[in-house]
Amino acid sequence: MLKRVLIVAAFSLVVAACGEMGVLDGAGDLSDEFIYGGLSTTTTTTTPIVVANGEVILASSEKATWVNDSLPDQASGAIQTVIAQTWRRGDGERFVQASRAEIVIALPGISFPVAVPEGVQWVTSQLVFDVASGTLDADVSAAFGLWADQPYSSDEGRRGVLRVGSAAGTTLVEGEIRPESRTEGFVMSWVAGDYRYELFCPTPITEAACTAVAESAAPLAAQLP
To answer: Does the pLDDT at position 22 exceed 90?
Structure first.
């Protein structure tokens, strides 16, 4: 599929699904720790264009604003330290808003698409916990929301949800993207390294566009500002 997609970039791209986990399951929901107006944000000027069948369908995820990159009191240090500090910040919530830097430490080797559906202007990011133990949930450990409108202002503004969990026990084969058509859109599932990824793309995003987003996944650590 990727061979049929032409990528034209004004600058270089950063180099570097819901069959088993469900569709949304709270991913991208608002937590008590998220206050949109109180955060400064991170943006860049990288603006690649992705064209399929003559139609512009994707833009760079670097152009989007990562709304949690400037959360106050971000956790740092060893993996377990970051997980524990983020859990405490969430005050017992399952989905806790977290910056890219925190997620990269908590989930070493995690990837994120460098291309997103056209119109995406904001990305929200969360670590997801087992509330009984205060540790990361193995099934869904991180969630990302892709938004064309101000995050959480309406479901219509959501252009995608990416959920990441442990690859242990999955039937997916690494290197293969499994598409699934749903009434409300498409789901792309794949495995890379230790993680299982499920990308939900709501209608009217096309299957070609959703597939291209999934195929663009690259190490998130290489995408940090």
So the answer is: no
Name the residue type at position 89: R
DSSP secondary structure, 42-60, as one string: B-----EEEEETTEEEEEE
Check residue 6 and give its pLDDT. 32
Least confident of 40-54, 99-113, 193-207: 40-54
Number of C-beta neighbours around residue 108 at 10 A: 12
Structural domains in the chain, sorted by start: 13-43+60-223 (3.30.200.100)
- The tokens for 163 are 């959920």
Burial class (CB in 10 A: 0-12, 13-18, 19+), 127: buried
Give the pLDDT of residue 187. 98
**Higher per-residue confidence, 155 vs 14:** 155
Rounded to an integer, what distance in angstroms lies between the CA atom of residue 66 and that of residue 32? 18
CA distance linking residue 32 with residue 96, whole number of Å: 8
The verdict on pTM exceeding 0.85 is no
SS3 state of residue 66: strand
Token pair of 93 as six digits: 């919530």
Range of weakest confidence among 3-12, 41-50, 139-148, 153-162: 3-12
Q: Which amino acid is at 53?
A: N
The DSSP bridge partners found for residue 129 are: 136
Question: Token pair of 67, please?
Answer: 């709304």
Distance CA 148, CA 156 (A): 9
Backbone φ and ψ of 151, nearest 5°: -50, 135
